[in-house]
């Protein structure tokens, strides 16, 4: 957001901008169930810190302040990715004195345009974001241990991420930020570990479609058999009518190894006449060339967030460790 004149904010709560009235029911903007609403938060009392001035605001206060200055989508993205959650005051604890009651009205559009961000500053920002994504990738990699399983020396266990909700949310936010630009109409996740990324669809306000192993859902289209890095042959299905002609979908999974699973998904989407704008995976085992396979099969893009060289967390195994994999 463009810098603004701190003097414009009134310290007098009576003169500050009033919050719009809350909707009936659960509350303000962050009520359940409105497709297209973004944000990832359903708590209208939640405050986030605007990095512009370091103060915490509710969504209503922030959107009132920036009304007419930024588009709703831009502001939602700003709330989601740039504003950091503020610590909640415990019951009985007063809010900090420095906390303004509401932001003063935003500057008029013309004035803001004149303050457009210089290119150099935008470049610095882009570099900073890259560093942030790299740091996040490393932090996630640290909580994904590997151990021998199903005859693989290194089975990467993404369960570790589920024990760190902030990291999981940050991962989903990175994906949502990426897919928002692609204007996707649906997110498809693979059983089972692809289902962990349903928050991405919630953040984007688009449907999440389950791609399930054969025999789990009625009335389906099947990919036919495919092979994976381990466990031989599998088959995945999508329910008829879940994907429509000309849908723009992202296929999402925790990990791409040989690409067998993703290619089966691509085949399913092709049968539905939908476009696979991206195959997106949290982890990419590059040495197994899944990427090339997916591109050849018709995916427009393949994206992996964490490469195998970051996955250096070796699990400590107990003496009685047993590989319970079936094959
Ligand atoms: O690139 P590939 O060689 O196809 O391997 C990758 C797939 O293997 C794993 O799933 P798995 O089928 O084992 O299912 P699970 O999530 O139910 O364990 C993983 O979650 C991917 O979906
Ligand atoms: N090495 C691996 N670790 C975890 N999941 C996988 N799926 C396929 N290969 C895998």
TrEMBL record:
It is found in: Cytoplasm. Residues 1-10 have a biased composition (Basic and acidic residues). The keyword Transferase applies. The keyword Glycosyltransferase applies. Its main location: cytoplasm. Residues 1-47, 89-112 are annotated as: Disordered. InterPro entries: Adenine_PRTase (IPR050120), PRTase-like (IPR029057), PRTase_dom (IPR000836). Pfam families: Pribosyltran. Keywords: Cytoplasm, Glycosyltransferase, Purine salvage, Transferase. One of its GO terms (molecular function) is glycosyltransferase activity. Residues 13-24 have a biased composition (Low complexity). Pathway: Purine metabolism; AMP biosynthesis via salvage pathway; AMP from adenine: step 1/1. It comes from the Eukaryota. Its EC number is 2.4.2.7. Residues 161-284 form the Phosphoribosyltransferase domain. It is an enzyme of class 2 (transferase). It catalyses: AMP + diphosphate = 5-phospho-alpha-D-ribose 1-diphosphate + adenine. Belongs to the purine/pyrimidine phosphoribosyltransferase family. Homodimer. This is adenine phosphoribosyltransferase.
